[in-house]
From TrEMBL:
SUPFAM superfamilies referenced in this protein's UniProt entry, alphabetically: NAD(P)-binding Rossmann-fold domains
Residue ranges of domain NAD-dependent epimerase/dehydratase in the record: 3-88
GO molecular function: aldehyde dehydrogenase (NAD+) activity
CC per GO annotation: cytoplasm
Taxonomic lineage of the native organism: Bacteria, Bacillati, Actinomycetota, Actinomycetes, Kitasatosporales
Descriptive protein name: NAD-dependent epimerase/dehydratase domain-containing protein
Length: 293
C-alpha cells in the first residue's frame, strides 16, 4: 500500500514508517518543516509539506493514499489551555481525514489511549476515555470508528501511558524530564498506581497489522507491560540520575496530575490473540536502564 502517515518523524511515527517500508509499503509523510521533510526522506518516505492544522493538505494526502495512519499530536502539556488546543487541532484533523476516505473502503488507523477502569485492567472492549484533560481525543476517535458504517475501514490503536525507546518517551519520559529539572525523582501519592507500557518498535508492528488486516470499527491495545508501579519507575529513574526518590504532590505534573495519580493497568490479550501481535523488545523497567545520567 501507499500509506499517508501524520506524525511520521516522532518517536512512534519514525518506528511506524520504518516498519511499513520494511514490509513493502511506501509512505507519504506529513512534514511541517524542512527539517522534518529531510528526516522523512532519509527514512525512505516521501514528504508532504504541511501542518496538522491545514485540512486541505490532510485531504490531499489522504486522497493519494491507499490507507492512512494518523499519529500526529502537539504534545504540549504545559497548561490546560495548551492541551485543549492540541486536542481541538487533532480532532479537526481526524474529521478531515475521515471525510476524505468515506466510501473508499480504505483503512484509516487512528490512535488514542488505553482506558482506565476501576479495580481491573482495561480491555479492548472498554470504551475510550472521553473525560479529563485529553478526553476529547476519545471523542474524535469514536467518531472515526463510526465511519465504519460509511465505507471506511477505520480502526483505533490504543497506546499505553508510556511508549518508550532507549529510555525515553511517554509518561516515564516526562517523569525523567521533571526529575532532571527538579532534582527529585518523584511519583504522585504512594506510587502504587500502575501504568501500562510498550516499546515503540513493538507498537509500530501493531499499527502495521491494524492497517493490513483489522476489521472496520475495531479497537486494539498496544500493551506489552500491563502495569508497572510508578514508584518502581521512579526508582529506576532516580538510580540512573543519582537523585532521591520520593512522593511529590500531583500538582507537580500540571494538567496531567489527575492522570498521573490514577491506577490504570491495561491488557492487550485480545489484540495478541486476534492479530497475532507479540511484543519482542525490552520492557519498560529494562529500557529505562538506558537513561543517561
Amino acid at each position: 500500500m501507499h500509506v499517508f502517515v501524520t506524525g511520521g518523524t516522532g518517536l512512534i511515527g519514525s518506528a511506524v514508517v520504518a516498519e511499513l517500508i520494511g514490509h513493502g509499503h511506501t509512505v507519504l509523510s506529513l512534514a511541517r518543516s524542512e527539517a522534518s521533510a529531510q528526516v522523512a526522506e532519509a527514512a525512505g518516505a516521501e514528504p508532504l509539506r504541511g501542518a496538522l492544522a491545514d485540512p486541505d493538505i490532510l485531504r490531499a494526502g489522504a486522497a493519494q493514499a491507499d490507507g492512512v495512519i494518523h499519529l500526529a499530536f502537539a504534545n504540549d502539556f504545559s497548561s490546560a489551555e495548551a492541551v485543549a488546543k492540541a486536542v481541538a487541532e487533532e480532532s479537526a484533523a481526524i474529521a478531515a481525514l475521515g471525510e476524505e476516505l468515506i466510501g473508499s473502503d480504505r483503512p484509516f488507523v487512528t490512535v488514542s489511549g488505553t482506558p482506565w477502569v476501576p479495580g481491573r485492567a482495561s480491555t479492548e472492549a472498554d470504551p475510550p476515555p472521553t473525560d479529563g484533560p485529553v478526553g476529547g481525543r476519545g471523542l474524535a476517535v469514536t467518531a472515526a470508528l463510526g465511519l465504519a458504517s460509511r465505507g471506511v475501514r477505520s480502526t483505533a490503536v490504543r497506546l499505553p501511558r508510556t511508549v518508550h525507546n532507549q529510555g525515553t518517551g511517554g509518561f516515564a519520559g516526562l517523569l525523567t524530564d521533571i526529575a532532571r529539572r527538579s532534582g527529585v525523582s518523584g511519583y504522585p501519592g504512594d506510587g502504587a498506581q500502575r501504568w501500562p507500557a510498550v516499546h515503540a518498535l513493538d507498537a509500530a508492528v501493531l499499527f502495521r497489522l491494524a492497517l493490513e488486516r483489522a476489521p472496520a470499527g475495531s479497537s486494539w491495545h498496544a500493551v506489552a507491560d500491563e502495569g508497572d508501579q510508578v514508584r518502581d519507575i521512579a526508582a529506576v529513574i532516580g538510580r540512573r540520575l543519582g537523585l532521591p526518590v520520593e512522593s511529590v504532590p500531583a500538582e507537580t505534573y500540571g494538567p496531567l496530575g489527575p492522570i498521573f495519580a490514577a491506577d490504570q493497568p491495561s491488557s492487550g490479550a485480545h489484540t495478541r490473540q486476534a492479530l497475532g501481535w507479540e511484543p519482542k523488545h525490552p520492557r519498560l523497567l529494562e529500557d529505562l536502564e538506558n537513561i543517561q545520567p
